[in-house]
Amino acid sequence: MKSIKLKLIIMYLALVLIVMMVSGTYIIFSLKASEIDKAQNQMQLYSEKISEQVVLSFEETQFQSGLDQFSTADSTSSQIQGNIIDLNGTTLASTSEERTPYQQYKYSVIMTAMAGEASFSTERDDSSIEWLRSAYPVDINGEVKYIIFCQMDATEINDHLSQTATTIIFSSVLALILTAFMGYFFARSLTGPIAALTSRAKEMAEGNLSNSATVYANDEIGQLTHSFNFMASELSKHIAETTKEKNRIEIILHNMTDGVISYNNHGELMLFNPVSMDLLELKEMIPTLDEFISSYDIDSSVYLDMGNDFFKTAVFPVGNKYVNASFSPYTNEKNEFAGVIVVLQDITEQKKLDDMRKEFVANVSHELRTPLTTIKSYTETLIDGAIDERGIALDFLDIINSEADRMAFLVRDLLQLSRLDNNQYTLNLSRFNLNDLINENIRQNKIHAENKHQSLSYVPFDNDVSVTADRDRVTQVVNNLLSNAIKYSPEQAKIDISVSEDSRFYKITVKDTGMGISKEDLPRIFERFYRVDKARSRAMGGTGLGLAIAKNIMESHGGTITAESEYGKGTAMTIWLPKETTETPKN
């Protein structure tokens, strides 16, 4: 039986049935005992009456007359059958028989009375009729002379008891029916709120925490319902807070630029964000920490000594990227090691900048060391006596002066580049004609081109082009491109300058037919100190900073410089100059 309602009804019925059975049985036995006691008292009184009125009231000469009167007495008004018996067991008189010979009685109660003690018993005869029998001794002069034997048919008493038992059974059945109805409503009053709470609990398990259970009463179940509703309300708040926090964490993880991967203390994958898969160039995340470590050839010490206080990093390549992985532990509520979080960062640009910085320091050191070495060696030679020979001394001093100028140019370019990087300058904006500026630069560089028998040509732009920019800075950029084209193009080369436009920019293109730049070198020509042909560039007096400075200048105007080249066929450098300069660097 799984229903509490059915259990309560059955227990209620069983209790009432037991009470009715016990009480009914007690009533029946009590009534029977009472009736038997009543009959016994009647028979005793009857025996005493016979003893006084029949036996003791007549003289011995008149005793027979008294017996005759006793035998002929009307006994229909009484259910008691009386008999007078002598000590030999002979019935002398009887109210149940009209004539002699009378029946002889040999019951145990008579034997007991002959011994001088009154006796009473209930017995059944051969026809299963129950009789109540009593024997009363008559004592004359201290000696038992006669026995008053009485008996009564107990059928009427038993019929009365049967009627009483029937009434009790009927009452019990009626009580059980009423109890069933009352038990049903009683059980329903108990199980109804419990069923409602059960249904509400199932709804809560399915995620519905908004509805409250109905409070039917202010009893213990009502208090339980109140507590249940309060628990549901608090649980709803906690779930809302947990969901809010979970969503916040998911949003943070989803929008982080760093990749995040979490593994538990068994090295199994717990969570990760999409950025981590992009950084690792994976379509499916690696399921275990061991596989992650081995897949990217990370030092195994990262996880062999994994503990609560460790923090380790590892850098490894992924395709064309460099990824930095930071391994840090996290603990549970018992402060026990629960797993490890791996934070992934794309440090490709940082590594490139770090490599460029190292290369820059090395280049600057190299660029300064060469002229310094030359100056020192020639100075020492002069000190050792070469100064006395005027011709040699002048040649040495000329070389020293040239190397000093080279260092000055280098320092000047470095200072200018530093100011450009840190925005420590102000554009001196003015309105000027672009055709005039280009023609002026051509005149300045024409003699150098003619010395190499190069063709330098420019067809002015159709319209009268006026721009707002820093004229000196733009002149520096155009001059740098022209001088580079002349320097790095062979004799008889052709150098063309042209101007075009689109909706936002004027584009100044310097195109030569020189040796060109390879595809590998082309993306790096604007890096500091980067030279395609280092020996040739250094021999021509270049510092390797010109294009880097030129690009910085154009970007400060809101434009840029781009390069197109094919190795062995020439290079085209394009200046993108905004038609209207709207941004000015801060001081």
Query: What is the gyration radius calculated from CA atoms?
Result: 65 Å
Tell the overall outline. rod-shaped
Mean pLDDT: 80
Can you tell me the residue ranges where pLDDT is under 50 for at least 5 consecutive residues?
A: 535-539, 583-587
Q: Please indicate the percent range of residues in DSSP E strands (runs of 2 or more).
A: 15-25%
- Order of strands, main sheet, comes to 2-1-5-4-3
Distance between the termini: 89 Å
**How many strand segments?**
17
Count, helices = 14
Helix % is 40-55%
**Broad structural category:** alpha+beta
Task: Describe the structure in your own words.
The protein is an alpha+beta fold. The chain is 50% helix and 21% strand. The protein is built from 14 helices and 17 strands. The strands form 4 sheets. A 5-stranded antiparallel sheet has the order 2-1-5-4-3. α4 (155-205) runs parallel beside α5. The longest helix is centred in the N-terminal third of the chain and has 52 residues, at 4-55. Residues 535-539 and 583-587 have low confidence and may be disordered.
